[in-house]
């Protein structure tokens, strides 16, 4: 068999889930966010500073917090786990690759789909299916957590008093989108 | 006028705002703000239903949620038909259509009422005694007849077109009940800065202030104060007011479930709005202010329409402006009923007499009634009510016996006193305590962070209630707020009350205690005489308190009669446990969003749209939709699968394997971890190579399997079964975190990061080659069971050379969003080489032809590696892995275990049924000794015959034996053979 | 729905995010392959199933994903405390003497957290 090269010239096209979908209700807008680069970063405490340096932001070490810088956000998901999202087109995988300190950086850019829930009814919309207390006092701007929405798991990040980023696995995005749609229409109450 | 019994100047509704409605098809007019019950009463209608067991005519007992009698069906349209709606709770709207239940042919003439005449046969425990014999009659006679007679109301026969929503809420203080106590507690808590939710089951806040005219609070009458207070609360940003909302369940750690009825009171509700909303509230502290429920008097024929609770008659008059009769009598053991007589008398209604079982009632209310010229008959009892469809008179006798007197009346107001509503307190696991002085159960020991205030706590009098509520509210807020001062200028004083049957003949008459289940005082006594000692037994034997009203008006009466009959004090007989829900809850509210598409997530692969566009038939695999087969024009499933199977082996096939579980195992100890989690050896697997791995549970049985590729010394790409993905991940995390935490390795689910396209068949290499960059596809460069990273169609790929068909094959992993595009490119190449798309059914057949097992189909959680013929996959030199000891248990190594074998039917055309049992001797008597069962069975077009896999006891020692599969249509002969039916030497892997 | 304090998230969170994982402090032998049938039976099949205080494992599966241990009263369904995997089994005052005391543990980093008693 010959050495491989693209003889056909075919170039794959990216087709994100839910592309272009949006829900506009009286008090809430649910929009699908564009694709982003993401890694699941796992590391012991001793590697945090080296990885922070490589990623260009300080990895948060407090539960339910996140850190954001230059279009890149790191969400604390567990004591040795972060979700790093890069919306500026830079690759966190590549940034972690040279780090010698113990860690695991796995590309999950395509695993997750992100939705923005914004508006005065955003908190009520999420409270239709999320059992956590999402009031500003308990879940302030920047708060991040893995949790439940209805029957599926999500990652929730508060980006503003009336705005949340919801991340879920790709195949659950239909469910999450439809759930948020129903909830958004009931969010005025 | 909206009804001839409507009284001018009484009530709080606006006479001009009428609402039309129908009851049993007849047209009536009521007022906005009416309940169906008040509107019916305004039109002089008391008869609204028939009782469940005896079909006795029944009227309206109460003005609230405790109503046992006035259950009707409300029909908005064909799909919106709600049975068993309490007329006392249903708010009137223009166009409301209600029908009575449990009657045929009509409410006034009901054939089922024959049960009333036959009632001596239907005594307590009737069901338990009567249907015992003959045994054969149960199925043919008793059950069908009981079923047709059972149940109340007719359930709708169409899907519920409404939708329901849900909300989790968190607050510092949840106040349940919006009467004087609840409103006050809410204000006190809110002023101290607490976040407060206040709910009340009624449309308007006020509770007993709906009827209690004698209250003067903060210089206003009680009702006006309540409305002003509610308005004040509504304006506070830290308060959420929920009217029409019932707290129906009190669960652990102050988790309280509420249902809000959002649209049932509207004439033309917005259909995009939910009909009901389920609130799941977590409160730091709960204030229970649920009030008390009035009890009726227990005497002969006390269920006649027109007999109702005194407080209800007062509510109908003072709130709705409706007189419940023109000539009413009162029968009471409590002062509170006097206020009903006084209010009615003042409104111009004739009060025939107040019959009081107490010998010398006294106090302000008694004095006022007397001064209004109302005849008071103390020390007397009503021994019978006359009138069938409506009370017409009552027979009154001195308690001690003597001459009876008949008093004409068209309504009889009754009160045996008040039962504190300790339902929610009891649900919270608090223990009630019996207060002997006042003969009532009150909150005793608290189990959760909650407090009861007002009537539900046994606090009598408005002044004491308000003081208690202020304290509870500010305590609940945790910090003192603005000092709340509420002045009480006037309040009603109520004393008295009785439990159990009133004096009078008790042995033969029907003196009802539980109206909804038709339980009489006599039934309770009989239960005791037949040996029931505990109230739990009495309850079940008589069904007292077991109807949908949960005995809100009847429990205490039943308990008192049982105690009296047993000659025991009430606490020794015990109180049955209160359970959620407090009032019936719709399934809609409980299910809320989880209907239709949201019932369960439907997971689709990135390639799903292509499969759909190409006519795939899908099957459900867990939550996934997987392409099952791709029929071409004129093909049925059988033909499509045959074609797909043949095409794969002849040319090539493409299969969407994206649903396979995938886990990336990363870290310097990755191989060590793999050694511990899988039976196989991994340390020596070279990067770039793959291995089929088997995972056991600690019990030694096969848990999962899959191909694992080593991408680098510290990085493995593990695949799992589709269905096993989440539990395998959990299993691995469990061992990593708790048994092997010393290992430096991490697990990440990458199931959904990668779309997986299996390209299988002799032409597979030619199909993928033109699209690849940087990967040498020669057999030397990329042998069977190897993995490479490179690019396909310009995007990253992890390319596996592996086969689940037995033919040369590849699995192309690409980032999910590229999955469909790469599939399309491969499809274009594949068409040049005669490839087809194939689904899960062909995949199953092709792997069975090779004897490859499917975990969960050929194994069932009790199959060992040895049973499955997979001993080769166990690393013999390993000293530890999960399952290493379990698999050596005596029973797991004993001879005679079921082993996986191939089965060939003697008639090659017969396809066995999966799950069919196998016997050695088809002529043995039934029940036969079963020695195995079929796990997989298909028609194999490639083999030109049927093939099957089976687990058979000692199967590998039975090669060539003939066994039998007895089926309803005859016995099928089978021969045991190898599990590999096609290409036994495995030459096609490189073919 | 219970509230469970996750020792890693340092917060009480709704039960929906958690999953029970069976009894805690069951020791998996470091030489499991060689244990007797009886020892394996003890290890694999026998559980205390007490009425009262139970030591059990939970996983904050839809949260930080950590396994941890909890002490719960099976009668009241109340959590008495939760603690991280690997921390020693706490001794509670209210606990009947029968299940205590635990053996003194070695100072070295435990190989097994689940089995750490």
Automatic annotation (TrEMBL), chain A:
Q: Which residues cross the membrane?
A: none
Q: Name one GO biological process term.
A: sarcosine catabolic process
Show the Pfam families listed in the entry. Answer: SoxG
Q: Which GO terms describe its molecular function?
A: sarcosine oxidase activity
List the signal peptide residues. Answer: none
Tell me which InterPro entries the record gives. Answer: SoxG, SoxG_het, TrmE/GcvT-like
Q: What is this protein called?
A: Sarcosine oxidase subunit gamma family protein
Automatic annotation (TrEMBL), chain B:
Q: Which Pfam families match?
A: Fer2_4, GCV_T, GCV_T_C, Pyr_redox_2, SO_alpha_A3
User: Which Gene Ontology molecular-function terms are recorded?
Assistant: sarcosine oxidase activity
Q: Which UniProt keywords apply?
A: Oxidoreductase
Q: Where is the SoxA A3 domain?
A: 510-590
Gene Ontology biological process terms in this record: tetrahydrofolate metabolic process
Per UniProt, residues of the FAD/NAD(P)-binding domain are 172-447
Q: Where is the GCVT N-terminal domain?
A: 607-878
Which ranges of the sequence are coiled-coil? none
Keyword Oxidoreductase appears in the UniProt entry: yes
InterPro entries noted in UniProt: 2Fe-2S-bd_N (IPR042204), BFD-like_2Fe2S-bd_dom_sf (IPR041854), FAD/NAD-bd_sf (IPR036188), FAD/NAD-binding_dom (IPR023753), GcvT/YgfZ/DmdA (IPR028896), GcvT/YgfZ_C (IPR029043), GcvT_C (IPR013977), GCVT_N (IPR006222)
Question: What are the residue boundaries of the Aminomethyltransferase C-terminal domain, all occurrences included?
Answer: 898-983
Entry keyword annotation includes Oxidoreductase: yes
Q: Which domain of life is it from?
A: Bacteria
Q: Which family does it belong to?
A: Belongs to the GcvT family.
Annotated protein name in UniProt: Sarcosine oxidase subunit alpha
| Native species | Mesorhizobium denitrificans
TrEMBL record, chain C:
One GO BP annotation of this record:
tetrahydrofolate metabolic process
Alphabetical list of InterPro entries matching this protein: SoxD, SoxD_sf
- Stretches for region Disordered: 92-117
The terms under GO molecular function for this entry are:
sarcosine oxidase activity
User: Residue ranges under compositional bias (Basic residues)?
Assistant: 106-117
Chain intervals with Low complexity compositional bias: 96-105
Q: Per its record, how is this protein called by name?
A: Sarcosine oxidase subunit delta
């Amino acid at each position: 068999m010959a050495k491989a090269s693209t003889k056909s010239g075919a170039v794959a096209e990216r087709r994100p889930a839910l592309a272009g979908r949006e829900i506009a209700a009286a008090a809430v807008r649910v929009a699908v966010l564009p694709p982003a680069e993401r890694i699941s970063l796992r590391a012991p405490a001793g590697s945090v500073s080296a990885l922070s340096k490589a990623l260009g932001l300080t990895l948060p070490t407090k539960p339910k917090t996140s850190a954001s810088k230059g279009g890149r956000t790191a969400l604390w998901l567990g004591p040795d786990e972060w979700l790093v999202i890069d919306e500026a087109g830079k690759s966190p995988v590549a940034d972690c690759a040279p780090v010698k300190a113990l860690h695991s950086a796995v590309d999950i850019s395509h695993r997750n789909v992100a939705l923005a829930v914004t508006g005065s009814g955003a908190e009520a919309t999420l409270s239709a299916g999320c059992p956590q207390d999402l009031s500003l006092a308990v879940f302030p701007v920047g708060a991040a957590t893995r949790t439940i929405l209805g029957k599926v798991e999500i990652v929730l990040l508060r980006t503003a008093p009336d705005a949340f980023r919801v991340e879920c696995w790709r195949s659950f995005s239909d469910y999450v989108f439809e759930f948020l749609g129903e909830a958004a229409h009931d969010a005025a109450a | 006028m909206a009804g001839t019994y409507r009284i001018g100047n009484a009530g709080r509704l606006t006479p001009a705002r009428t609402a039309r409605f129908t009851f049993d098809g007849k047209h009536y007019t009521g007022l906005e703000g009416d309940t169906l019950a008040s509107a019916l009463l305004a039109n002089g209608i008391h008869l609204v239903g028939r009782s469940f067991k005896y079909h006795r005519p029944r009227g309206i007992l109460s003005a609230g949620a405790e109503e046992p009698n006035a259950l009707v069906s409300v029909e908005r349209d064909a799909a919106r038909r709600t049975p068993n709606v309490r007329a006392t709770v249903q708010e009137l709207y223009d166009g409301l259509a209600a029908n009575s239940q449990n009657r045929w042919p009509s409410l006034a003439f009901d054939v089922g009422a024959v049960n009333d005449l036959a009632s001596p046969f239907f005594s307590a425990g009737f069901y338990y005694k009567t249907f015992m014999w003959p045994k054969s009659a149960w199925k043919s006679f008793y059950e069908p007849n009981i079923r047709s007679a059972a149940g109340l109301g007719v359930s709708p026969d169409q899907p519920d077109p409404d939708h329901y929503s849900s909300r989790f809420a968190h607050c510092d203080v949840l106040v349940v009940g919006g009467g004087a106590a609840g409103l006050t507690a809410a204000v006190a808590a809110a002023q101290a800065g607490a976040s407060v939710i206040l709910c009340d089951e009624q449309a308007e806040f006020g509770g007993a202030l709906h009827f209690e005219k004698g209250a003067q609070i903060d210089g206003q009458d009680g009702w006006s104060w309540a409305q002003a207070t509610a308005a004040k609360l509504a304006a506070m940003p830290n308060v959420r007011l929920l009217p029409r909302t019932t707290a129906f369940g009190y669960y652990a750690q102050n988790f309280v479930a509420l249902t809000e009825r959002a649209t049932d009171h509207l004439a033309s509700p917005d259909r995009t709005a939910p009909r009901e909303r389920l609130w799941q509230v977590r409160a730091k502290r709960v204030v229970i202010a649920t009030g008390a429920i009035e009890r009726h008097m227990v005497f002969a024929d006390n269920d006649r329409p027109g007999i109702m609770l005194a407080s209800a008659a007062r509510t109908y008059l003072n709130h709705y402006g409706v007189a419940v009769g023109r000539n009413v009598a009162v029968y009471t053991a409590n002062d509170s009923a006097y206020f009903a007589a006084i209010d009615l008398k003042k409104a111009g209604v004739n009060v025939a007499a107040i019959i009081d079982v107490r010998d010398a009632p006294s106090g302000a209310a008694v004095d006022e009634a007397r001064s209004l010229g109302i005849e008071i008959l103390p020390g007397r009892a009503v021994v019978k009510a006359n009138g069938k469809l409506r009370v017409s008179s009552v027979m009154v006798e001195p308690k001690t016996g003597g001459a009876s007197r008949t008093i004409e009346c068209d309504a009889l107001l009754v009160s045996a006193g008040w039962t504190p509503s300790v339902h929610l307190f009891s649900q919270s696991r608090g223990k009630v305590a019996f207060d002997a002085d006042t003969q009532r159960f009150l909150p005793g020991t608290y189990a959760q962070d909650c407090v009861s205030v007002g009537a539900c706590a046994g606090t009598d009098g408005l002044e004491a209630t308000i003081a208690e509520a202020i304290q509870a509210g500010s305590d609940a807020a945790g910090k003192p707020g603005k000092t709340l001062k509420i002045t009480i200028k006037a309040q009603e004083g109520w004393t008295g009350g009785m439990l159990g049957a009133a004096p009078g003949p008790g042995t033969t008459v029907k003196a009802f205690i539980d109206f909804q289940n038709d339980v009489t005082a006599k039934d309770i006594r009989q239960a005791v005489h037949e040996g029931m000692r505990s109230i739990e037994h009495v309850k079940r034997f008589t069904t007292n308190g077991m109807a949908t009203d949960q005995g809100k008006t009847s429990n205490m009466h039943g308990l008192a009669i049982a105690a009296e009959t047993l000659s025991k004090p009430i606490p020794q007989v015990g109180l049955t446990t209160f359970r959620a829900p407090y009032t019936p809850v719709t399934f809609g509210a409980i299910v809320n969003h989880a209907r239709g598409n949201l019932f369960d997530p439907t997971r689709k692969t990135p390639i799903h749209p292509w499969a759909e566009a190409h006519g795939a038939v899908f099957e459900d695999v867990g939550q996934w939709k997987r392409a099952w087969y791709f029929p071409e024009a004129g093909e049925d499933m059988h033909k499509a699968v045959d074609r797909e199977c043949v095409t794969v082996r002849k040319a090539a096939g493409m299969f969407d394997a994206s649903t396979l579980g995938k886990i990336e195992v990363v870290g310097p100890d990755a191989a060590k971890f793999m050694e511990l989690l899988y039976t196989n050896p991994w340390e020596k697997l070279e990067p770039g190579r793959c291995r089929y791995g088997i995972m056991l549970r600690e019990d030694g049985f096969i848990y999962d399997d899959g191909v694992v590729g080593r991408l680098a010394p510290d990085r493995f790409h593990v695949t799992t079964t589709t269905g096993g993905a989440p539990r395998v991940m959990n299993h691995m995390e469990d061992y990593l975190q708790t048994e092997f935490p010393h290992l430096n390795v991490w697990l990440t689910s990458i199931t959904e990061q990668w779309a997986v396209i299996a390209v299988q068949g002799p032409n597979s290499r030619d199909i993928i080659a033109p699209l690849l960059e940087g990967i040498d596809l020669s057999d030397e460069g990329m042998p069977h069971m190897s993995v490479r990273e490179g690019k396909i169609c310009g995007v990253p790929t992890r390319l596996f050379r592996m086969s689940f068909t037995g033919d040369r094959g590849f699995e192309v992993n690409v980032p999910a969003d590229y999955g469909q595009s790469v599939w399309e490119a491969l499809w274009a190449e594949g068409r040049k080489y005669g490839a087809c798309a194939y689904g899960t059914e062909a995949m199953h057949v092709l792997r069975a032809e090779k004897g490859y097992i499917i975990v969960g189909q050929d194994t069932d959680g009790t199959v060992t590696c040895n049973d499955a013929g997979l001993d080769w996959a166990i690393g013999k030199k390993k000293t530890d892995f999960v399952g290493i000891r379990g698999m050596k248990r005596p029973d797991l190594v004993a001879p005679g275990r079921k082993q996986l074998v191939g089965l060939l039917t003697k008639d090659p055309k017969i396809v066995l049924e999966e799950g069919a049992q196998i016997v050695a001797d088809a002529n043995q008597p039934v029940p036969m000794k079963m020695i195995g069962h079929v796990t997989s069975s298909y028609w194999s077009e490639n083999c030109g015959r049927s093939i099957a896999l089976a687990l058979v006891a000692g199967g590998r020692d039975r090669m060539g034996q003939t066994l039998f599969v007895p089926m309803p249509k005859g016995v099928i002969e089978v021969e045991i053979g190898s599990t590999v039916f096609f290409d036994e030497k495995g030459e096609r892997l490189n073919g | 729905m219970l509230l469970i304090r996750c020792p890693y998230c340092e917060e009480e969170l709704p039960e929906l995010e958690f999953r029970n994982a069976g009894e805690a402090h069951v020791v998996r032998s470091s030489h499991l392959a060689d244990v007797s049938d009886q020892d394996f039976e003890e290890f694999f099949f026998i559980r205390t199933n007490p009425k009262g205080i139970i030591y059990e494992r939970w996983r904050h599966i839809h949260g930080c994903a950590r396994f941890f241990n909890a002490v719960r009263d099976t009668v009241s369904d109340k959590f008495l405390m939760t603690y991280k995997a690997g921390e020693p089994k706490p001794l509670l005052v209210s606990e009947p003497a029968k299940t205590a005391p635990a053996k003194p543990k070695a100072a070295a980093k435990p190989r097994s957290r689940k089995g750490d008693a």
